[in-house]
Write a structure and sequence with these properties.
single chain; mainly alpha; two-stranded antiparallel sheet; 76% helix
């Protein structure tokens, strides 16, 4: 039964390879993509249920047990993130049906969305650092192609910047892996956790941990986010939604995993640095969001604020703060996909993302307007929507653990986030309309189905928080007690 862990990786890979042979048959590619993602969603729900009932699933690829072979590990953290990521890929794919130009659909947009799904799922499920690097690269190579889809001057410029940044971070990743291997003699995460617990985390290992933090910080937008607003503003709306919901989250997952499983022995140094970086990320991201008047830039800076807030919970490092961080992470994946989809619809209707050039959309698109309003409230953490629960848990635990200033920063930046997204809502939907009744009637309608589903999810996740917390707390338990992960990989339990 542990073989089921390979399905979220192999299904999108095989589907993408099949699609390549049907380049001109866009309708067939769309059917294959939706069927594949629906199938994976069902499988991932089963994995979450099985992990919840029977504990961590471990697959030793080729029969070689860790630390000698390649392991896939499905604990509740991995299982939940794989499920959410696959579902978001499904929503973004549905949105892409009507938002990506027909001329560009033949350039493998759907195969590369599936390959990106393969890379993201593999990153969440792998049990060793080298394969984490490999799946990161699968994800990044797919994102390079998707970012440049359309071939506009802005896209090409941002693609070059994005590629250079990620090549640098990947190089640093390899260097960090080499240093860690030279010290410990292993790359299995479970084996690393066990060995470092025995030999102790000395100054050299702490230095190596900061190298990993720099790498994952670049990928997640933790303080080192200078590349992100431009890169996330350039691709088509469906791709931007996919990037905003997933790419930085893989970096956040990597920080969560490494600093709760491997480098957790000197929290007074490592976790303090994470908290400081999180504070600066929230402040700078919020200032960027309120200072811009372009929808794309405002939404991109909101991605940065959320990264800081989630990693504040990780930096505190207690069971409750990790629970809040994971709950907020899952909420943010849904909410960012939703707000980018709806923002993309607004831009496609007006043909511009400059707020001073648009107004009065509520008359023709009331559904779009109210969906955006709910998404804006969810992003700010207004009850009873999904953002509220995770935010309250993180802030409460932050105050309990003595991080009062950070909690104040979290509340203040949340208000600035609310101001920035309400600015989009007010300028786009209220005021005298600039559109005629028949103007652009068909544009933007592809956002309504995925937008409605995601809105229902963030409302349901808020109202049914207790049910979601049951699973999130199982994930937090493994993060707070890394021996559970280690024992499962080495078959000391189960």
């Amino acid at each position: 039964m542990s073989n089921i862990l390979v399905l979220p990786i192999i299904i999108p890979l095989l589907t993408a390879m099949t699609m390549i042979f049907f380049r001109r048959r866009v309708r067939l590619q769309q059917i294959l993509a939706v069927v594949s993602l629906l199938l994976m969603t069902g499988i991932n729900i089963f994995i979450v249920h099985r992990v919840s009932q029977q504990g961590i699933i471990v697959l030793d690829v080729g029969g070689w047990q860790a630390p000698y072979g390649i392991s896939l590990v499905g604990d509740m953290l991995s299982a939940l993130l794989v499920l959410v990521a696959t579902f978001i890929c499904l929503m973004c794919t549905l949105f892409a049906f009507g938002s990506v130009d027909n001329d560009h659909k033949v350039y493998f947009v759907y195969p590369f969305i599936l390959l990106l799904t393969c890379g993201v799922n593999g990153s969440f499920l792998t049990g060793d650092l080298f394969n984490l690097f490999v799946f990161f690269e699968v994800m990044l190579i797919s994102s390079y192609v998707l970012l440049s889809l359309g071939g506009k001057k802005l896209q090409l410029r941002e693609s070059i910047k994005y590629v250079i940044i990620n090549v640098i971070s990947s190089t640093l990743f390899v260097i960090a892996i080499a240093y860690l291997y030279s010290i410990t003699g292993t790359l299995s995460m479970a084996h690393l956790s066990e060995r470092i617990a025995i030999i102790g985390q000395d100054g050299l290992l702490t230095t190596v941990s900061f190298l990993f933090l720099a790498v994952f910080g670049l990928k997640s937008g933790l303080l080192l986010f200078f590349w992100l607003p431009g890169s996330y503003s350039a691709p088509p709306p469906a791709i931007a939604a996919l990037f905003a919901a997933l790419l930085t989250k893989v970096g956040i997952y990597a920080i969560m995993r490494t600093f709760t499983l491997i480098f957790y022995h000197q929290p007074e140094i490592t976790h303090t640095v994470i908290i400081i970086m999180a504070a600066l990320t929230m402040i700078l991201g919020a200032l960027g969001a309120i200072s811009h008047w372009e929808i794309k830039k405002i939404l991109a800076y909101n991605v940065i604020v959320a990264v800081g807030f989630i990693l504040f919970g990780v930096g505190v490092g207690s069971f409750d703060s990790l629970t809040g961080a994971l709950f907020y992470l899952i909420h943010d994946m849904f909410a960012k996909a939703l707000i980018f989809i709806l923002g993309g619809a607004i831009i496609s209707i007006f043909g511009t993302d400059k707020l001073r050039s648009i107004s009065g959309l509520i008359l023709f698109r009331p559904s779009l307007g109210w969906l955006f309003f709910i998404a804006a409230l969810a992003l700010a953490g207004v009850p009873p929507l999904s953002g509220f629960v995770g935010k309250v848990i993180i802030l409460k635990e932050g105050i309990t653990e003595g991080h009062l200033i950070m909690s104040v920063i979290g509340i203040a930046t949340s208000l600035l986030v609310l101001y920035s997204v309400m600015k989009i809502f007010i300028h786009s939907f209220w005021g005298e309309t600039l559109l005629s009744e028949g103007d652009q009637k068909a544009t933007g309608t592809s956002s309504l189905l995925p937008g409605s589903i995601l809105t229902a999810l963030i409302i349901g996740m808020g109202l049914g928080a207790e049910w979601v917390l049951f699973y999130v707390q199982q994930a937090a338990e493994v993060m707070a007690n890394p021996s559970l992960y280690v024992d499962a990989v080495f078959r000391r339990i189960n």
